[in-house]
Design goal:
Layout lengths: L2 E5 L6 H10 L16 E5 L3 H10 L3 E3 L2 E6 L14 H9 L3 E7 L15 H33 L3 H18 L11 H10 L7 E6 L12 H12 L3 E5 L1 H7 L4 H11 L5 H12 L2 E6 L4 E8 L4 H8 L1 H5 L1 E8 H7 L2 H6 L4 E3 L9 E7 L2
Parallel strand pairs: 1-4, 1-5, 3-9, 5-6, 6-7
Antiparallel strand pairs: 2-4, 8-9, 10-11, 10-12
Helix pairs in contact: 1-8, 4-5
The chain binds guanosine-5'-diphosphate.
Length: about 375
């Protein structure tokens, strides 16, 4: 499963946020496939479509799809130089698919800030520079390997790669993340093979206090971080880690009441989960029946047999076809019978590219 690593300076609220995540962690019994490790939190992806399907089908079980966060504690200034347990942390980030960068946007004199003042843009830059420095090392090592080959032979591939490396290096040296470099599809293949930290998609999390969170747009700290994010075309999610920690122990009804009391439209953690899912190009297809209504994660662009294989390898091996309708149709018509009568049920073959929100019935040979 794909995972987003939580990074940030010390005392910005990472542990508080991770607590909120582990408190809302799914029951292993319902998700036997989830491997739950101490530094990993597996959460349900909130999805109103599943709630609506449950209303219509009255299933015995309702199962949301899940997403994983990994706690990457302790990334500090100097990590790329091996400060502290620097290299260990950097290699932990390397194992993640996206980065969830928590930045302190709350004041609290009792909680020291490692840099002695609240300055979201500076803080974001400190972490980003560490990641960039680590990537620079990777790139320099790669250049040492490829340069010779590109110069002394007519190896086309080596030259094409060198062309990328020669643009990437100054880009990183200028303090820019790899993800913001304009590259061709061919170059994207090289870039992927380096597994650079700053090529991973990032979401900034503005950790705000209980007051600031009621109107993030009016908060100068949030605005400062938002500017950083906009420059990188990255998302920023405002939340209050403390509130999320309180919410994490509550039932859905209690949660809604608590949020209403605070004047908040939704849980910031829920928004974060949804954004993290989206930056990784993840989509959801649904299965619906009287036994079970369930959401399944797939990568955008996957075809029907591969999606069938997510449920069971036999579904893929023996794939015949899929019967498909959209969530909008079941929401509108109310039953599968009505969908059929309206001519909205489609039969799709092995080349069908599954769409987010499709409701799938797979037909297969056993
Ligand atoms: P970490 O070092 O990044 O893991 O930070 P922690 O999660 O341990 O938080 C550091 C301190 O900040 C703790 O005392 C938290 O209770 C406090 N804290 C975390 N989030 C918030 C918040 O949203 N508002 C306020 N006021 N304090 C917070």
């Amino acid at each position: 499963p794909l995972t987003a690593g939580i990074v940030g300076l010390p005392n910005v609220g990472k542990s508080t946020l991770f607590n909120a995540i582990t408190n809302s962690q799914v029951e292993a019994a319902n998700y036997p496939f989830a491997t739950i490790q101490p530094n990993v939190g597996v959460v349900e992806v909130p999805d109103h479509r599943i709630d609506r399907l449950a209303e219509l089908f009255h299933p015995k079980r309702t199962i949301y799809t899940t997403f994983e966060f990994t706690d990457i504690a302790g990334l500090v200034k100097g990590a790329s130089q091996g400060e502290g347990l620097g290299n260990q942390f950097l290699s932990n980030i390397r194992l993640t698919d996206a980065i969830c960068h928590v930045v302190r946007c709350f004041e609290d004199k009792n909680i020291t800030h490692v840099e002695d003042s609240i300055d979201p843009a500076r803080d974001a830059e400190i972490i980003n520079l560490e990641l960039i420095m680590a990537d620079l090392q990777t790139i320099e090592n790669r250049i040492a390997k490829v340069e010779r080959k590109a110069k002394t032979t007519k190896d086309k591939e080596a030259r094409a790669e060198m062309d990328l490396l020669e643009r990437l290096k100054p880009h990183l040296e200028a303090g820019q993340p790899a993800r913001s470099l304009d590259i061709s599809e061919e170059e994207a293949v090289f870039l992927k093979s380096y597994n650079l930290l700053t090529a991973k998609p990032v979401i900034y999390v503005a950790n705000m206090d209980e007051v600031g969170i009621t109107d993030p747009e009016a908060d100068p700290y949030f605005q400062a971080l938002k500017q950083v994010a906009e420059k990188e075309h990255a998302e920023v999610v405002p939340l209050c880690a403390k509130i999320e920690e309180d919410l994490s122990g509550m039932s859905t009804e209690e949660k809604d009441l608590f949020l209403e009391d605070l004047g908040l439209p939704n849980s910031g953690l829920d928004t974060l989960i949804q954004k993290a899912y989206a930056v990784l190009d993840l989509c959801t297809f649904l299965t619906a029946g009287e036994d079970e209504c369930r959401a399944w994660t797939f990568r955008r662009g996957m075809k029907a047999p591969d999606c069938a294989g997510i449920i069971h390898t036999d579904f893929k091996k023996g794939f015949i076809r899929a019967e498909v309708y959209t969530f909008e149709d079941i929401d509108h018509y109310g039953s599968e019978q009505a969908i059929k009568e309206a001519g909205k049920l489609r039969l799709e073959g092995k080349d069908y590219v599954v769409q987010d929100g499709d409701i799938m019935h797979f037909r297969f040979n056993v």
